[in-house]
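TA notes, week 10

Several of you asked for a full example with nothing omitted. So below is the full record: C-alpha cells for the whole chain, then the designed sequence directly under it. When grading your own attempts, check the secondary structure regions first.
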C-alpha cells in the first residue's frame, strides 16, 4: 500500500510538472500552429464547414460558434457560391448541429439558398465521407474551413474520402491561448485531438 501511494504521489507530481510546462511555455502554441498547417485565407467556390460541439438542440458550442463566425467572414470577403455545413445530431439534441449553424449563418447574411446541410455525420470521418458523397459532382474549388487544431486531421480525412480540399484554418486554440485562464482548456483540447489523430492513423482513415 505504501508503494502504491508513493507511485501515485510521483505520478501526480509528474503530471503537474507536465501541465505547468504546457501552460507556461510556448509548447502548446507551437503544437496548435503545427496542426493548423499553412495559414491561408483561400477563396473558392464551395466553402465546407465541419461542425463541432453542440450544447442542445438550439445552441452550438464554442468551437462550432467560432467555425460559424469565420464562415460568415469568409463568405463576406470571398466569392463562394455555396456553404456546406456538415454535422448530425449530438447527444441530448433532437436537431442536427448543421441545422443550427445553418440558421446562424442565414441570420448573419449568408443567403439561405446558398447554405447546404449534411446532417448524418457524427465524426470528422463521416463529415468527410458524407460531404464527399453530397458534392461529388459539384464543380469548382472546395475550401475547408475549420479550427486550427482540427485542420491536420480534417484535411487528411477529406482527402482520404476522395475530396480534394484547400485548407483555410482559423485561430481557435491559438485565440484561447492568449488568455492564461484558458490555457488548461487548450491543453485538454490538444491532448484530445492528439488521441483522435492517433486513432485515425491506426484505423487508416488519414
Amino acid at each position: 500500500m505504501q508503494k502504491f501511494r508513493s507511485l501515485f504521489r510521483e505520478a501526480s507530481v509528474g503530471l503537474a510538472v507536465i501541465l505547468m510546462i504546457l501552460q507556461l511555455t510556448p509548447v502548446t502554441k507551437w503544437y496548435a500552429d503545427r496542426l493548423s498547417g499553412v495559414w491561408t485565407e483561400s477563396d473558392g467556390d464551395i466553402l465546407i464547414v465541419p461542425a463541432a460541439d453542440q450544447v442542445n438542440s438550439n445552441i452550438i458550442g464554442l468551437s462550432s460558434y467560432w467555425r460559424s463566425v469565420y464562415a460568415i467572414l469568409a463568405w463576406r470577403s470571398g466569392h463562394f457560391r455555396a456553404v456546406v455545413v456538415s454535422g448530425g445530431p449530438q447527444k441530448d439534441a433532437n436537431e442536427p448541429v448543421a441545422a443550427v449553424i445553418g440558421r446562424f449563418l442565414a441570420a448573419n447574411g449568408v443567403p439561405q439558398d446558398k447554405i447546404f446541410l449534411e446532417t448524418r455525420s457524427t465524426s470528422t470521418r463521416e463529415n468527410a465521407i458524407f460531404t464527399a458523397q453530397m458534392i461529388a459532382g459539384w464543380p469548382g474549388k472546395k475550401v475547408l474551413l475549420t479550427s486550427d487544431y482540427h485542420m491536420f486531421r480534417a484535411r487528411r480525412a477529406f482527402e482520404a474520402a476522395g475530396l480534394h480540399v484547400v485548407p483555410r484554418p482559423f485561430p481557435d486554440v491559438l485565440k484561447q491561448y492568449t488568455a492564461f485562464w484558458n490555457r488548461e482548456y487548450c491543453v485538454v483540447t490538444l491532448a484530445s485531438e492528439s488521441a483522435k489523430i492517433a486513432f485515425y492513423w491506426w484505423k487508416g482513415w488519414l
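The mean pLDDT is 86. Use that as a sanity check on your answer.
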